[in-house]
Specification:
Blueprint lengths: L3 E3 L2 E4 L4 E3 L8 E2 L15 E3 L4 H8 L4 E3 L5 E4 L2 E7 L7 E7 L2 E5 L21 E6 L11 H17 L3 E5 L5 H6 L9 E3 L1 H12 L8 E2 L13 E4 L15 E6 L8 H4 L4 E3 L7 H11 L3 E7 L1 H10 L3 E4 L18
Parallel strand pairs: 3-4, 4-5, 5-6, 10-11, 11-18, 12-15, 12-16, 13-14, 13-15, 16-17, 18-19
Antiparallel strand pairs: 1-2, 2-3, 7-8, 8-9, 9-10
Length: about 325
Amino acid sequence: MVLRFTPSGIYCPAGDFYIDPWRPVDRALITHGHADHARPGNAAYLATPSAAPVMRHRLGDIALETISFGETRQIGDATVSFHPAGHVPGSAQIRVAVKGEVWVASGDYKTVDDGLSEPFAPVRCHTFITESTFGLPIYNWPDQTALASQINAWWAATAANGQTAVLGVYALGKAQRVLRLLDTAIGPILTHGAIEATNAVLRGQGLSLPATIPVTPDLDPKSHPRALVLAPPSALGTPWMRRFGPVSTGLASGWMALRGIRRRRAADRGFIISDHADWAGLNSAVAATGAERVFVTHGYTNHFSRWLTEQGYDAGIVETAFGGERLDADEDMTK
């Protein structure tokens, strides 16, 4: 096997490296900067140039090399290359070839171009390792234009009611996507410190984002009427929100496609948006690889692997420590 599934993570014996290891190793190839994929403690890291700034922000002074999309590198007896995954800026699928056999570890990915991340690029291979965070037919993401209209209409109505709109979003990826959907003519945009820190990193590498105002201890919300506040989901319902007075809360997540999730999270509105592939995206991505064998990780692994088997693939399930998209674990980018 080109890649093996070990207690430390996905391992390549021919190159003596790991992909997104969940325990410290000597050499780690990292698909992207989310905390369940880029962990501290590795002796050496390899990632794309656009994933590197976030990783350094999160992990500190690490031994990090970069590799451009499409560039090939020989590591031991393995040839590796990184290819866009479309998940968040800099996210990659990692192609590993050994003696003519090609495997691709996709990390997290989505197939819809969000105008923010490098668009997903299918990679032909013999074996494909795919996530299945939203691996059920009920998950079908709405058009981004319609989504923008929904969020902006809620914001405008909330402002007209004399309330502050507070929207829960992940700090890396989701927050920036939402920012680019917002109609800044409605009012100012305030940001939780975790989101503002991530925005600063991404702006520093040339990403264009609307102007935002960080929420600091001395900020007076009354001086920013009609504001929308972006905050990690964990901040909703906490004392941090009291400063904004009467609020209407929203959550932006793929999980909002499930009835009852928004109610259980005590949010007033739910908006369906995810940085992971929906059902159609997962199926199209697998088909585009031409792979005969597929390993399914994190998410609806049983259902999706069974479905793939019914479609004629040699499909199996692999247990990993990747978290996918969870409402109880924020990617808040704090160190």
